Amino acid sequence: MNVVSFFAGAGGLDLGFEQAGFNIIWANEYDKEIWETYERNHNDTILDKRSIIDIKEEEVPQCDGIIGGPPCQSWSEAGALRGINDKRGQLFFDFIRILQAKQPKFFLAENVSGMLASRHSRALQNIKEMFKEAGYKLSFKLLNASYFGVPQDRKRVFFVGIREDLNFEFQFPQPLKDKITLKQAIGDLKDLAVPANEGNKTNEKNCKIPNHEYMIGGFSSMFMSRNRVRSWDEQSFTIQAGGRHAPLHPQAPKMKFVEQNVRVFVPGKENLYRRLSVRECARIQTFPNDFIFYYNNVSAGYKMIGNAVPVNLAKHIAISIKAQVENAEKRLNKPTIKRLELENTAS
């Protein structure tokens, strides 16, 4: 099945779908800092570099599925329900506009867990109504990536819509029994990381492993307000899009509590505290080793990785979508197949 991807970023969601057997034939990403990374890692995908608001429906290839994660702000704008006819600059509405025009078999849209907060209840209701009006049966669920082969606590909301004529409601995959630890994910990288160059410019030439460099610089009082270290036998904190907020490496002991909202590094162990490297964050997001990130400032590397959907989580959802859509198509085609068999027997 062929899929097109919007707000593709570095392509974590896309890669997960590829690993599940889908073909990502076309993708859209407006951030020029990401283009080289996407194109070098997705050789068979056409990358459209315009803003979605400038893309006409007929310019998007016909496909079996549309996937992507419209930015958080555009989801919130749905609360005002300005309407499909007033969509310029409102990225969520452009996602709906193209979905409505192309009518693929399914769509997937991803958003942060805060989308389910009570203050967004109106937006959520409007979103559900718009997807229904577009011709889709909607399923949505809050998933923690740590239950789907990702060594990280990361909660995100996924909306999956199935075109009405396929006549079924998507069921999300069940959590896996075992969790992956930080030791399993990044233990082999422990002694090979290098600090970024001054100004947090890339130090790639000194990296024995691609992207295995970490951001340097101090830690804010906000960062120091709580523990930022997870142990080797645990899963990581959420990998964020900002390098300054990257979790600390598990080689360090957990930060020492001083008082409410104040913690310090364990005295005498300060040298063990460093941010996770770009490559370690990529591993935790379950990008494969041969997926290389291209940037001049390490902050851009952290941003690409932190904004991505974890590859393994995307893969598990994609496998479920593929199986359920194919089963529905077989079920719907059975009467036709039976009729043809009877006609052939009669002749």
TrEMBL record:
Swiss-Prot/TrEMBL keywords: Methyltransferase, Restriction system, S-adenosyl-L-methionine, Transferase
Gene3D superfamilies linked: DNA Methylase, subunit A, domain 2, Vaccinia Virus protein VP39
InterPro entries attached to this UniProt entry: C5-Methyltransferase, C5_DNA_meth_AS, C5_MeTfrase, C5_meth_CS, SAM-dependent_MTases_sf
EC annotation from Swiss-Prot or TrEMBL: 2.1.1.37
Classification via PROSITE patterns: C5_MTASE_1 (PS00094), C5_MTASE_2 (PS00095), SAM_MT_C5 (PS51679)
Entry's Gene Ontology BP terms: methylation
Gene Ontology MF terms in the entry: methyltransferase activity
Domain of life: Bacteria
Pfam families (alphabetical): DNA_methylase
Principal EC category: transferase
Active-site feature positions: 72
Reaction equations catalysed: a 2'-deoxycytidine in DNA + S-adenosyl-L-methionine = a 5-methyl-2'-deoxycytidine in DNA + S-adenosyl-L-homocysteine + H(+)
Family that this chain belongs to: Belongs to the class I-like SAM-binding methyltransferase superfamily. C5-methyltransferase family.
NCBIfam families linked to this entry: dcm
Protein name as catalogued: Cytosine-specific methyltransferase
Organism encoding this protein: Pseudotenacibaculum haliotis
